[in-house]
Amino acid sequence: MALNLPQKIGALTTITPAGDQVGTTVRKPSIAPMPGGANLKCRIRASGETEPLTPPLSPCRSPIRTDLAVACQALTADLADETSPHVEEQKHLLERPKGEGVPVYVMLPLDTVRPDGQLNRKKAMYVSLMGLKKAGVEGVMVDVWWGLVEKDAPTAYNWNGYTELMEMAKQVGLKVQAVMSFHQCGGNVGDSVTIPLPRWVVEEMEKDPDLCYSDQWGRRNYEYVSLGCDTLPVLKGRSPVQCYADFMRAFRDQFAPYLGNTIIEIQVGMGPAGELRYPSYPELNGTWKFPGIGAFQCYDKYMRSSLQATALSAGKPEWGHSGPTDAGGYNNWPEDTAFFRKEGGGWNGPYGEFFLSWYSQMLLDHGERIVSAASSIFSAQPGVKISVKVAGIHWHYGTRSHAAELTAGYYNTRFRDGYLPIARMLARHGAVFNFTCLEMRDCEQPGDACCRPEALVKQVASAAKEAGVRLAGENALPRYDETAHEQVVNAATSGDADDKMVAFTYLRLNPQLFEYENWKKFVAFVEQMRKGKAQSREVVEREAEQFVQATSPLVQEAGVALMSG
Length: 565
Fold this sequence. Notes:
The chain is α/β, with parallel strands linked by helices. It is 38% helix and 10% strand.
């Protein structure tokens, strides 16, 4: 019979290192709070260069006491020694039992693998993974960057850092969600580093700028190769979709021993920030600011060629010259524009319906091509599921046109469900529908921007249920408070067993997560997700308090290691 949390505490409060005669008593540490709110700066770190974490953090003002450091080192040594006869028993006592709720994963730092292809901050990573495991976390999510692995030449893959990470996760006992990140890191919310696309891809984009997404003002976006050229041999003789498929196939072959046991999910990136969408709201250089409506990205020659052909086929060649010219700019609001306004807006007329149907169908076709390739490549791997991430664009959701969703490629309006076609496409391939902004409440958002994150999450859940596709979730922004945790629990565990999400991925592993109060709340959150609503939060928090005190040496070690690198 599995031990409950209070029973485990007795085994945790005294840890006797091998060879020692006296146990070390664990006490609640005092960890100084860390400043937040700093601006994030994007840059590439050269090989071998050291750099403080971003956002900048103050040094820990509470050094690890000798007894805590000894206890932590003994704990890590014991768990790493697989030949020790009491290791499995010790692991069992430390780990929290599985429940029937929603498993929680944690996103790893964006720079988990360095520009030179090696694993970053190895000690910090190992201790952090152990801390997550003890808290009941199911696994971690990691970006497998196209721009790092295939950086220098086509099909020349460097998996070194990721191989080390997978082995580390296996040793600790954590599952891995591997993200095939075919986009640039840098220029989106939360991007604290810059990782461009592979060098040889950028060279081709510089030779032919129409490989980039483009807006009506001629602004090019280098975050992701335009889907307009998905099937054309524009990248050194291969099409973008062929490049993505070759990358996934090489990943499958490299990590075959881990697939199905350690690596249990392949999330396939399909656009900026890894999401199935157009780069309609780029933050880089201040182009877009929340809550602007964004801008259509259909002005490269490949997209325009498709638009012209579709308009000609529809008997309306005059509709194929351009996207809407009256849709405003990135930072306009719907009522500022003739196309998106409530009364008489072009979005709801014959031309608007034609254009938006074409624009959204191009995105759907793009998604289908890549998820089809991924499903085929990993179909023979039991225990591995495919997932696709869709953005939670909640601003202006309360308006009729849903302008910000339309520019991103989601044909969702007051009169049309834009998420059901996506859900049905994913269902055809047995893929998981991964959705963001689960932590957000309507009352936290600016009312004048008609933000409705709660209604949006409910709509997506309904579409997933109707299509018969499994749903998973993420938080869009870092949150450590109980209000956000409660919102996620309600969204992820509501309804009967069939309505529960298959997983939730928490944003993100960093030093702030291991601060005492944040860690205590996070442990309670993981337990609540594991048990769902069957147990009151008060009971969970009481057990979490005991658990956190007992595991404080490991947690403090993880926090300090992340800060020091």
